[in-house]
Amino acid sequence: MRKLFVYFFAFPLFATVNEPFRWEFFSGYRNDRLHWHLQTGGTGLLNTSEIYRDVQFWENGLTIQTINRDLVIFLRGSYGAFGKGTLFERYANLPFTSDEPQFRFDTNGWAADTSGYFGYAVNLTTDRTYKVILIPLVGCSAHFEHLRGNDGRPNPFESSNAIGANFYTMSSSLPGSLHLTWYGAFLGAGFQIQPGGRLNFSGGYSYHWLYARFKTEYDNTLSLFDPSLASEKQNSFHFRTKGSGNLGQTGWGQIDYLISRLWRTGLGAEIHYYSSELLESNLHEQTAQIVPAGGITNSVISQKLKIRWTSISGWFMTSRDF
Questions:
Q1: What pairs with residue 266 in β-bridges?
Q2: Which of the residues 6, 123, 189, 212 has the least number of beta carbons within 10 Å of its own beta carbon?
């Protein structure tokens, strides 16, 4: 009985999991949503907000993975092209009106992602015809997004709700691009289910600790009429921010169909949700007085930045074992 007891508990330690190197090429659709806003430091009043909705990419990438004596190695990289979507921009708490002027832009751009992790494969169904494998994992990832807005509308925004004037007009433009970078470490767990036929299932979840870098710039032109043009000035803003303490979550799943011993195809999906802390930022403002003619003034305003980013992607993949 004692020998049987030792054998029962020791046997799983020698039931290792091995899978050959697999190169997986995937191509599919990705949809991003990015929301950032600035609020005045100390007061918390909203200053500027931008929401990028339905930013659509054609995403292509490569995954390399293997399991050698239970040790899992996973590497993945992808690139998304086009970045077609809609940007909604909003100004708030302006000194010359109680309105919150809103503008809409078309977007284009690109995105790139890379990730890698080490894991340990635990076969939960030793000595069975099917396999259920649990994979605790630790890794790191980086995500880059570059977006540009154009064709702003309305052009201009008009309102009679002006303070100290009969009415005003305001136009907005985005002369520069938005640059967003997330990178950091994560912990998680994955699974594989191999029923024994031609279909395999896999998926997982990871929790991220992230460092963020953010950069953007934008312009607006304000004209006050009383009743003719009494004042006009052009304002240019730019800022860059970086900071740690940000958090994120990722989930993924995939179904593989085994064409042969070496080749397989399948469908997969993945979702990211990342959110920043309130990041300290200095907003640089340059004001050019056009009417009446005047000079250029520069100022720096203390702000706090909040970022939320969601990315959902789905793909078709083909892979080969080596």
A1: 256, 317
A2: 6
- Residues 138, 71, 115, 309: is their CA dihedral positive or negative? negative
| Cβ pair 25, 318 in contact under 8 A | yes
Contact 185, 138 (CB under 8 A): yes
Instruction: Please give the domain boundaries of the chain with CATH numbers for all domains.
Output: 28-321 (2.40.128.90)
Angstrom distance (rounded) from CA 91 to CA 97: 11
CA atoms within 13 A on the CB side of 210: 31
Summarised one tens digit per residue, pLDDT across range 80-93 is 999 999 999 999 99
Cα 266 vs. chain centroid, distance in angstroms? 24
216, 179 in Cβ contact below 8 A?
yes
Residue recorded with tokens 């011993």? 261
How far, in Å, CA of 34 to CA of 53, rounded?
7
CA distance 236 to 219: 4
Task: Report d(CA 155, CA 207) in Å as an integer.
Answer: 43
Q: What is the DSSP string of 62-129?
A: EEEEEEETTEEEEEEEEEEEEEEEEEEEEE-S-TT-S---EEEEEEEEEEEEEEEEEEE-EESSTTSS
Segment 205-240, tens digit of pLDDT: 999 999 999 999 999 999 999 999 999 999 999 999
